[in-house]
Each structure stands twice: as C-alpha cells, then as structure tokens.
Design brief:
With 74 residues, the protein is mainly α. Helix content is 61%, strand content 0%. The protein is built from three helices and no strands. Helix 1 (11-29) packs antiparallel against helix 2. 18% of the residues are buried.
C-alpha cells in the first residue's frame, strides 16, 4: 500500500543507485555489455533509478534497513 511506503533511502544511497544506473546505461550504449547480461543489468538500472526517485526500497523494508535521516522521512 502507498501509505506504508515511508522513505527509507538516504541521500548517499540514492546517489549511489543513480550512479550505478547511469554507469550500466553507459556500458550498454557503448556496447561494453550485451546479450542477456545487458538486459538483466538494464533491468537493475531501471529499478535503481526508480527506487532512488521515490526514496523507497521494498527490500530494505523487508529487512528493516533505513539509510534515510529522520528529518528526510515524510
């Protein structure tokens, strides 16, 4: 449910996820990765970018991880 999606990603965590997403995209666009591995990594890049954008990671919630500072949680 939407109301259970409290932010659990801090600024540093979001930055790293976006950086990884951009790196994977760059590797794909330069043909450094290809085939099924490229598709799998592109899927992860999309997940990293999306979770960074919404500041929420469902896997973090399952394991009780929260890298978000108290003042960032809303």
């Amino acid at each position: 449910e939407i109301e259970n999606m409290k932010k659990n990603l801090g600024t540093g965590d979001k930055f790293i996820r976006l950086l990884l997403a951009v790196l994977i995209l760059a590797l794909y666009l330069t043909n450094a990765i290809s085939g099924n591995m490229a598709l799998l990594l592109l899927f992860f890049a999309i997940v990293f970018a999306l979770t960074s954008y919404i500041s929420f990671c469902p896997i973090y919630q399952i394991f009780g991880i929260n890298t978000c500072k108290a003042k960032e949680q809303k």
